[in-house]
Amino acid sequence: MNDRERRGRQGHHRERPDSGTPDTVVIYGWHPVREALQNPARTLKRLLATENAARRLAEENIQAGIPLQIVRPGEIDRLLTADSIHQGLYLETAPLPAPAFGELRASDIVLVLDQITDPHNVGAIVRSAAAFSVAAIITTERHSPSATGVLAKSASGGLEHVPIVSVRNLGDTLDEMGDSGVMRVGLDSEGPATLEGTPLSGPLALVLGAEGKGLRQRTRSLCDALARLDMPGAIKSLNVSNAAALALYVARQQVKA
Fold first, then answer.
1. Which residue ranges run through the membrane (predicted)?
2. Is the whole model's pTM more than 0.85, yes or no?
3. What does the pLDDT look like over 138-158, one tens digit per residue?
């Protein structure tokens, strides 16, 4: 195993189309690729592996399901950025299937992230979303992180259970949600009612804004309701990933999975 394969353990999972191929997602690194190979919802397209990585897959009895192409590490290097830690594995797949808004069930919850940029926070949100059976996470193409190694590590496997959909215009997407019958509730520390005191119905979209800035004005205006999480202690606000977990717990009391 060479130095490039040894460095780091988190790998990288970019849940966004590779350049010029809008139907292809690039995943690399031991743990993200292993999880993707074991996910029956993934449509696999191309798998590159070094001899050492291929041997490890065989030793752990991980079946690729597609032909595995043995390559030198440098061949994977050329497909990625200079600081990418691939550990000898590179996988191309189709994006995870996400339900259309009109197909969401009354038991479905969707998370909408309005320009949340910290990959640690987004990764933790993904993990909570997987725990609370979230149907999809909507992010913006700009001002949001791709699923980097930091995000993949923070998500602790959640990326294989919750589709992430990047959209160009969040306002238009919220409009489309409303037209499809999705209730849109924005989390706002100045909201007129508490989230637990707000009547919720599914399908439901919980909309979260970036720490500090909160929801943008147009995002706020397109929500059906604004709600706050009341904090009885001295600190009145939570980290956005903690707020997401708490909001999902509260929402699941009314919108049963």
1. none
2. no
3. 988 776 555 555 566 566 677
